[in-house]
Write a structure and sequence with these properties.
The complex is a heterodimer. Chain A is mostly beta strands. Helices cover about 5% and strands about 50% of the residues of chain A. Classes of the chains: A mainly beta, B mainly beta.
Chain lengths: ~120, ~110
Amino acid sequence: NAGVMQNPRHLVRRRGQEARLRCSPMKGHSHVYWYRQLPEEGLKFMVYLQKENIIDESGMPKERFSAEFPKEGPSILRIQQVVRGDSAAYFCASSPTGQGANYGYTFGSGTRLTVV
Amino acid sequence: EDKVVQSPLSLVVHEGDTVTLNCSYEVTNFRSLLWYKQEKKAPTFLFMLTSSGIEKKSGRLSSILDKKELFSILNITATQTGDSAVYLCAVGLQGAQKLVFGQGTRLTINP
């Protein structure tokens, strides 16, 4: 049973380009959580999605960032017109129910975004 | 604003030493406290604590929660070089599925 799969592992974008980060949850999991980790900092919650629904986006920056989790396929975190401050590690986690945070959900290995 | 603070931020010890990592929190609706170990990749789950005073133990690692004083400690005995990692503390909130993380403690074990 593969864990949470994130790709790409590393992504380099020039300022102004778009970044698309993908997260495939564990088999049977329909709830996905995205976190961002800036250098030398802890993880910061961005968004919680269920299939085809955004449940909590209280941590998402108001502009340039969007997330989706379609009925088929991976969850996508999209960052438009990237800036240097977007350089970070982006982690995804998944859970089988909406109680994932109650049990310490499983994280993927992350995508390290570098904006040059 | 919900806040989780870890100390120390960085710790270097020799193999075989015992270490204690600290985590304090100020949140509006506490549900649970979790510890993760992060090497170069994904944070891996260690413990979840919900009740005060009950120690959770896994091998050389143990953790306890004090809900009155709003803190938790993570102890590692007989440390090994493989324990070198960043240890993250996180708090789960009632009515929400997000975790609030501290900034982490970077632990280095020298042979």
